[in-house]
Amino acid sequence: MRTNTRKNDELRLVTIETNYLKHPEGSVLVSFGDTKVICNATVEPKVPPFMRGQGKGWVHAEYAMLPRATNTRTIREAAKGKLTGRTMEIQRLIARSLRSVIDLEKLGERAITVDCDVIQADGGTRTASITGAFVALKMAIQTLLDSGQLTEDPVKENIAAVSVGITKQGEAVLDLDYLEDSSAAVDMNLFMTANGEFFELQGTGEEATFSNDQLMEMLELGKKGLNELFQIQTQALKESKVKKAIQAPVMTDTILIATKNPGKAREFEALFAKKGLFVKTLLDYPEIPEVEETGTTFAENALLKAETIAATLNMMVLADDSGLKVDALEGRPGVYSARYAGEPKSDAANNAKLLHELADFPPA
C-alpha cells in the first residue's frame, strides 16, 4: 500500500487550467497532486540567428522554480549568475520534446518560447512541465491558426510525460510524489506521443537493479497513465476554446444556425446575405458540447439550444427542433424522435422501433 493511499496504477489528481494568464498566447496551470507548474507559450515573429533564412520556425523552452517551491528556500539562479546543470537539462528536455511533434516548416519563420515555472514542487516537476507545456504550445498555435497567420496546423500529435518506479518492497508504481521518489529503489520518466511511441526514457536504479520483467511492468503502468493524461489534455483544450468564445466580444454581423446540415446552412446563407450577415453552423464549432434537450415541447428545446449556444459563443443563434408525432401512438415519439430507440442516436433503430409499435394497428 502506498503511503498516499493511491493504487499502484493510479495517477495523482491531475488538472490543467487553461487561459491562466491573460497576456501569453497560450497559458496553463498544470497540477499533478501538489506539484503545480505555470506553463506559458509566447509567439515571436522571428527565429534565432542560426535558423534565419531556412523557412522554418523554432520552439524553445525555459524552466525555473520559485525559491520557496520546496520545503526550504533555494537561492534564485539569477542571483547565482548561472543555471544549474539540472535546470539546463530539464529545459533542453522540454524543448526537444515539444519540437519532436512540431512540423517546423509549417510553423514558418517564427519562434515560440515555452516558459515552465514551478510554483510548488512535490515530485515529477519535469513530467508535469512537459504535459502542461504541450497544452500551452497547442493553444499558442491555435491562436495563430484562428488569426490566419497559419493556414496549416504544425502539430503532429500530443505528447505527455509521467514518472514510474519500483519501491523498496519491489512494487511498480505510477506517478511518484516526492516522498515516493526519494525512497524509490528505481525511478524512471517516460515521454510518449499519443500514438504510443516513446521519444525519451530516463531510468535509474537508485538502490537496486531492475529486471526486464520489471521494466516491462513499468512501461505498461506508464502507458496507462499517459493515455489518461492525453484525455485530460484533450479536454483542457476543448474547454479552452469554449472559454475564449465566452470571453470574446459579441459578434453582431454573424449568426449561428444550430445545425450540422450543410444544405440547411447554404439555404440560410443565401437568406441572410441580403441582410449583410455571415452565417456559421455547429460544424464551425466542433468543440461545443451537444445541448441536452430536456424540454417537453419542440419550442422549449429550440429555445434551450439557442440560449445555451448564444451564451457560450456570444453571438446571435437561430435554432429549431422538430420530430414526428403519431396520433395512433398518442403523439409519440414527439420531442424524443431523435433518441426514440435510445443512445446512441440512430435513424434506423428509431424507424424500426416505430414500425414495431405500429404493427398492431390496421392500415388506414
TrEMBL record:
Keywords: Hydrolase, Nucleotidyltransferase, RNA-binding, rRNA processing, Transferase, tRNA processing, tRNA-binding
Pfam families documented for this protein: Ham1p_like, RNase_PH, RNase_PH_C
Annotated protein name in UniProt: Ribonuclease PH
GO MF annotations in UniProt: nucleoside triphosphate diphosphatase activity; tRNA binding; tRNA nucleotidyltransferase activity
Keyword ATP-binding: no
InterPro entries the record matches: ExoRNase_PH_dom1, ExoRNase_PH_dom2, ExoRNase_PH_dom2_sf, ITPase-like_fam, PNPase/RNase_PH_dom_sf, RdgB/HAM1, Ribosomal_Su5_D2-typ_SF, RNase_PH
GO BP: nucleoside triphosphate catabolic process; rRNA 3'-end processing; rRNA catabolic process; tRNA processing
Organism: Carnobacterium sp. (strain St2)
Domain Exoribonuclease phosphorolytic positions: 10-140, 159-225
Protein family (similarity comment): Belongs to the RNase PH family.
